[in-house]
Design a protein that fits this description.
CATH superfamily of the largest domain: Ribonuclease Z/Hydroxyacylglutathione hydrolase-like
Radius of gyration: 21 Å
Distance between the termini: 13 Å
Order of helices and strands: EEEEEHEEEEEEHEHEHEEEEHEHE
Helix content: 10-25%
Largest sheet: 7 strands, mixed
CATH class of the largest domain: Alpha Beta
Structural class: alpha/beta
Strand order of the largest sheet: 7-8-9-10-11-18-19
Number of helices: 6
């Protein structure tokens, strides 16, 4: 049902792409991150809750249809439905059914609790295409850590010394998750980069509770902050706006990459790291594959790595996603 093309995953009978890398006729989009949602397609299909974010990223005038989670729609004879992926607000797995076969493309997903998005839903299928961003046994997240408390304690300790706290987080998804876990703790507003302002508003408009924020762009020229928390992209320190920090500040990065000392991000000079990932860790990747009851599994991002080998050891038919290119016809047959 699905093959790999130069533009990504393509459903040949349904004539649609999933998260295409370029302009296509029909783009079924799992979520609004820029490596999954790109400009130029004639028609877009999104979850209802992900649609406002998609319009912020791609433009208000795109031709897009919003579909509620679990509701089936049909493209050229293929029944499609979206199911929560738990990655960011509105993120979805794509379930496809055609001629008695069911395939699921996971998109990006996580299974940790997150107050800012819909929780992951296991979907039974014949074939599962899973991401594997953290598809090695060395990436396992602690289950009971209170990330909101950890970040707040770091901010509070710095504030007592008059030191600003600079927390680097992606503007879509991670920034809102940080604001969500800080909502029960924050006593005053958090300064956010302008890139997150409209995205925050999308979350708030859908009833998601976030800590109060102020936009850095509203500060008067020459203003210098003291003891504040700033939630910004990684490029912030190289911008003119970084002058608001003065000379006293600490930096931290919120990412799953901070779980492993050998990762390129771990040794990037941050004063602190918070292991907050919007992707499944090793245990949840394996768990999700097993709960899908798939007869065959294709692995994206780390297709030639540990996850494929481990799934094969479990007796599953597991392959790298490169095997979905049509030059491997034998592995495209279900049986």
């Amino acid at each position: 049902m699905i093959i790999m093309t130069k533009k990504g995953l393509y459903c040949e009978p349904g004539h649609f792409h999933i998260d295409p890398s370029g302009a296509v006729d029909h783009a079924v989009v799992t979520h609004a991150h820029s490596d999954h949602a790109r400009c130029g397609s004639q028609n877009y299909y999104s979850t209802v809750s992900g649609l406002p974010l998609l319009k912020v990223r791609l433009g208000k005038k795109i031709n897009v249809r919003g579909i509620p989670f679990g509701e089936k729609f049909n493209l050229n004879g293929v029944d499609i439905s979206f199911h929560p992926a738990g990655h960011i607000l509105g993120s979805a797995q794509v379930r496809m059914e055609w001629r008695g076969e069911v395939w699921v493309a996971s998109g990006d997903y996580k299974r940790e609790p997150d107050p800012t998005c819909e929780p992951f839903e296991s979907v039974t299928c014949d074939v599962f295409i899973t991401e594997a961003t953290f598809g090695t046994p060395s990436y396992v997240w602690e289950r009971d850590q209170n990330l909101g408390q950890q970040i707040y304690d770091w901010w509070s300790a710095n504030a007592q010394r008059g030191v600003n706290s600079v927390l680097f987080a992606y503007s879509l998804g991670k920034a809102q998750r940080v604001l969500g876990v800080l909502q029960p703790f924050a006593q005053r507003a958090i300064y956010c980069h302008a890139a997150a302002r409209e995205l925050n508003e999308c979350y708030l408009a859908q009833g998601i509770s976030l800590a109060p924020t102020l936009c850095l762009s509203t500060l008067a020229p020459g203003a210098v902050l003291r003891g504040e928390l700033l939630l910004v992209p990684q490029a912030f320190l190289k911008s003119e706006q970084a002058s608001v920090l003065g000379e006293k500040f600490e930096t931290a990065f919120a990412s799953g990459w901070m779980a492993k000392a050998s990762s390129p991000y771990y040794n990037s000079g941050y004063d602190r790291g918070f292991v907050m990932s919007d992707h499944a860790d090793w245990n949840d990747l394996v768990r999700s594959v097993r709960e899908s009851h798939a007869q065959r599994v294709y692995v994206q991002h780390r297709g030639h790595g540990a996850l494929v080998r481990h799934l094969r050891e479990l007796g599953l038919r597991a392959f790298p996603d490169s095997d979905l290119f049509p030059k491997y016809p034998d592995q495209l047959a279900l049986f």
